[in-house]
Amino acid sequence: MEYFCYHRDRPDSVALREELLEEHWAYMDRHAKELIARGPTFADDGETPTGSVHIVDLPDPAAARAFAFDEPNYQAGAYRDVLLRRWRNVLGRTMWDRPGDSGEGNLYLVLGLGEGRAADLTPPPGQDELIVYGPLLSDDGGTWLGTAALLRAPDPDTARAVLTPDRYADIEVHDWEFGGRR
User: Fold this and answer.
1) 52-65 in b/e burial notation, b at 16+ Cβ within 10 A?
2) Are 58 and 35 within 8 A, CB to CB?
3) Which tens digit of pLDDT belongs to each residue from 141-181?
4) Cβ atoms within 10 Å of 121's Cβ, excluding its own
5) Vertex 66 angle, CA 46 and 94, to 5°
6) 106, 118 in Cβ contact below 8 A?
7) Of 7, 45, 90, 143, which is the most buried if we count CB atoms within 10 A?
8) 19-35 in b/e burial notation, b at 16+ Cβ within 10 A?
């Protein structure tokens, strides 16, 4: 089962995150085989971390909760909240095996929080710069709760346009970068 996990930073948690960087990476190293995508999000300045995305394939909701809440930054209080949802990997690939990466444009997390009838269950045509894409689901996989995508785009508005605007209670667009050891 695939899960989307987005830890949102507490204000002024940069020093704590830097202090725990090696612990965080070591924790993620233990889950390397299960990771579909990962990486930090940033404020508009492109430098201040605002959160951390991890899309991971785990056996069940209990394992996903353990993954999210045992993470060292969460345990130390660096995160203010965690969005954890079942997710379906519509593109069937990881961020490491995406085709056609042009290297042009910026990277974004686009997160649409849905309500009502499911939308955007398949990616729109002509989206060659999608890295990963899929619906956010309830724990049992039966209820659509939104859509999450990681993609390359020239600007936030272009990234936002990957989702149907009037089908979401909110669409968030965050600067994102590939995560992992440097």
Assistant:
1) bbbbbbbeeeeebb
2) no
3) 999 999 999 999 999 999 999 999 899 999 999 999 999 87
4) 11
5) 50
6) no
7) 7
8) ebeeebeebbeeeeebb
